[in-house]
Amino acid sequence: MPAQLPKTYDPKGVEPRIYQMWIDGNYFHAKVDWTKRSFSIVIPPPNVTGQLHLGHAFDNTIQDILVRVKRMQGYSAVWVPGTDHAGIATQIKVEENLRKEGKTRHDLGREAFVELVWEWKRLHGGRIIEQLKTLGSSCDWERERFTMDEGCSRAVREVFVRLYEKGLIYKGSRIINWCPHCATAISDTEVEYRAQHGHLWNIRYKVSGSDEVLVVATTRPETMLGDTAVAVHPEDERYRHLVGKTCVLPLVGRVIPIVADSYVDPSFGTGCVKITPCHDPNDFEVAARHGLEHVLVMDGAARINENGGQYKGLTREEAREAVLRDLEAGGFLAGVEDHDHNVGVCYRCDTLVEPIISSQWFVKMEPLAGPAIDVVRDGRMKFVPERFTKTYLNWMEHVRDWCISRQLWWGHRIPAFYCDDCGHVTVAREDPTACEACHSAHIRQDEDVLDTWFSSALWPFSVFGWPNETPELKYFYPTTVVTPGYEIIFFWVARMIFSGLEHMGDVPFHTAYIHGIVRDDQGRKMSKSLGNGIDPVEIIDAYGADALRFTMVTGNAPGSDMRFYHERCEAMRNFGNKLWNAARFVLMNLHVDTWELPEELAMEDKWILSKFNRLVPDVTENIENYEVGVAAQKLYDFLWDDVCDWYIELVKPRLQGGDAARRSSAEQVLVAVLTGALKLLHPFMPFITEEIWQALPHEGPALMVAEWPHPDERLNFPVEEADMERVMAVIGAVRARRAEMRVPPAKKARILVVTTYRAAFEEGRASLMKLAGCSEVEIRETPPEDVKGLVALVTDSAQIYLPLAELVRVADERARLEKERRTAETERAKLSAKLANQGFVDKAPAAVVEAERARLDKLDSLLRKLSDSLAALPPEDEPS
RNA sequence: GGACGCUUAGCUCAGCUGGUAGAGCAUCCGCUUGACGUGCGGAUGGUCAGCGGUUCGAUUCCGUUAGCGUCCACCA
User: Fold this and answer.
1) What pTM value is reported for the model?
2) For residues A163 and A86, is the Cβ–Cβ distance under 8 A?
3) Given CB 3.0 to 4.6 Å as the disulfide criterion, which of A327, A364, A442, A757 pairs with A420?
């Protein structure tokens, strides 16, 4: 920083330069170094063609704080960045773009289309990475990965083959969630449920060879086209005689059996359930138990297929209307009721999900879930905040097999090859040229790709080179911590855990530090459709990255959502500016270019050093416990209140005075405290702290690689700290009283301090003069004889008299002092009752009792002084 | 149906293992105070949702009620 500094901090002018300096210094790169402890984080890989949103800003800030602290603490700390190929999201994006040219992916064909997506990735893939840099993220860019790069793809293939060989991956025909819009299967996790007002239609099914009629209830009448049975509860007396008989499916005319199954709840609806095995998971189960026929009536676009007869070609919505109309016309409709229920929609596109039978690949979860439950139960892996443990366990304990195949082109293609001749499936690490069973060359690779989350599940070890046994893997795995939002606990965290355990034999990370989501100022989720999204890039532009980062970590509890307010960013920018100006002040007054702590320390020096010395372990501990918000708040308070509002003001007289030694020691302490605080603050506000540090006398190339502060025994000054605070209390009392009495600041007064802490106040004399607006300070141990015309103030260690004759009315003074006395007495009464309570004295920790005793002493002292002051008051003024 | 979270100053929210209630913003009163008006000094404002319990002591722990919110499950 040159001598002439702007009065306001300009992030735009500083941030890119500082970031480049870090890059040039290669400070982000972490090496395998067995002489150091390792610390590692892998980034939750953002979508490669996505752009930065506040959620990214949130967890990247957290990660950066953690990794910067550890780096400064001397760890070999790596933060591995990278991006996710984001199968569906990316493919859709490219397809949409293609549609502008009036083309679909099928016009191009698989190979050309995939090449086009790669091209798109090359074009847009860098954006989010660049945006992460503007945040100040200290990722090890040399280790940047992509879920579809060669290494990650190899890991995916290896995992697939291993799991297949162990029988943990299988292909089967099951009811899966089908998204008609994305035209692919999706996993259970990818379905979101929405409450919806709907209807329950009652439909008459005529019993064969009888006049009896069964009434079934359904919310989805169009699926009746695929009914292959009607089920009743085995114990249900009403229908027992019909079990084993058949009935006739209306409109279709198919004769279907009536079966008994305990799945049916006799108390719901009519107690008769239509069974549609191909379009309902429960019905699928029932069908399996009873060996029922499967009739699939919908295609991949959720249109009725040829099995739907006359309804063929209709969409599911059209089919519903048509079916209802025809049922009505045929007299099959027995009634309709309102019915609220949940419907599943695709988390990507919001389209109503269609449960449909389909042949897909699955990961068998049960054997994988067991260990994943154990490691959390026995504490080998923990969630912060702890409550997410339960969320996780509940999910893992009930998890169903994971549908991993996607009918997409963009992704890791399933390495399964079907033999046209013998039907054998060859699953192999390298593409086979022939069927492994019959050696026929007529093999075809499975058309599908894997769920995007299949590859991100491997991220904590694939990024370090697995399946190769690399030094990185040995050194950095398990990673220390991951920092996802709670919305991806199931998508990502859970799957990393069982994958890590299965393939690495160890947890992928020791801690999952879960955060909430960033909402708008009305508490709404940010979304494209609401148009309420806030672009972090604009925020950085307006307030600076440091301000955004600080906003992200302060004022919200771990794991809970936060609302985003511009005002908060503004406040944090102001904090940066405050720090900037404090630094400017220090530099303006600095006459040295190196520093060390002076031998002779003044009271205020010891006070601030002592406070700082306590701040160091406090902040360190908070960060270690993942209480970054608390740590940030402490730094904010220390810098603004203690350093700026007090210490700097306290040393101004020395800096401007003629005593060179006292001036110089103030400079030294200023630099010491500022430097120390900059180190602690650096992980939170890396840019501004680095910029200031570079301008201050320093050793080493950069703050970001400076050593994290340690508390220093020699800097504990409890006595001087207390003395200083006694003086500060008097300053506060005088200021408050003056403000109350509207004494203009320019009007200085002579004050009289009556105290037994004479030495402390002698040393604080200059501070009192400067900060309490005094023309003169008299310190004595006994009160003056005549206090007429004096305003009396009391702290627990001093009585103060201000000669403000023209402003004083004795009656008012008396009233005020008495009010203070009453307050103090009330408090004293409470306190002495507490101390008189034998239970308290016996059972409370000694330190607490001691503290309360000390407080009582102070109150007594205060009360004595109040009484003295009251007694000394002259008789009431003559009414004039 | 199950689980979880929240309810603290006008607003938005912090408050670690129980031991004198905090911040930012807003409001009010002052201030060109030689770092900073993105500032300085001062002030107002809270029976910490209600009710029980444990405890010497509860905003903090337990139970319960109410309101709000989230996740999971999904009886057609």
Assistant:
1) 0.93
2) no
3) A442
Beta bridge partners of A358: A174
- Determine the protein residue whose CA lies at the shortest distance from the C1' of B3: A391
Which amino acid, residue A390? Answer: K
Structure tokens belonging to residue A741: 């009495």
| Pairwise CA distance, residues A52 & A306, whole Å | 46
Look-up of token digits 């307030």: A543
Q: How far is the CA of A834 from the C1' of B60 (A)?
A: 20
Per-position b or e across A634-668, b if 16+ CB within 10 A of its CB = bbbebbbebbbebbbebbbbbbeeeeeebbbbbbb
Please report, rounded to whole angstroms, the spatial distance between the CA atom of protein residue A486 and the C1' atom of nucleotide B11.
Answer: 27
Q: What number is the ipTM of this complex?
A: 0.95
pLDDT digit string, tens, across residues A711-768: 999 999 999 999 999 999 999 999 999 998 888 888 888 899 999 999 999 999 999 9
Per DSSP, chain A holds a count of helices (H) and strands (E) of 29, 29
Pick the closest to residue A813 from A745, A872, A761 (CA basis): A872
d(CA A835, C1' B54) / Å: 21
Coil, strand or helix at A786: coil
CA–CA dist A658, A744 (Å, integer): 29
Q: Strand B contacts (CB < 7 A) among A residues 165-224?
A: 188-189, 192-193, 216-220
Distance in Å, residue A757 CA to nucleotide B63 C1': 52
CA distance A652 to A640: 16
Taking alpha carbons only, the member of A617, A667, A664 closest to residue A647 is A667
Helix (H) or strand (E) run with residue A87 in it:
helix A87-100
**Range A500-538 burial, b when 16+ CB lie within 10 A, else e:** bbbbbeebbbbbbbbbbebbbeeeeebeeeeeeebebbe
Amino acid identity of residue A355, one-letter, is: P
User: pLDDT tens digits for A287-334?
Assistant: 999 999 999 999 888 899 999 889 999 999 899 999 999 998 989 988
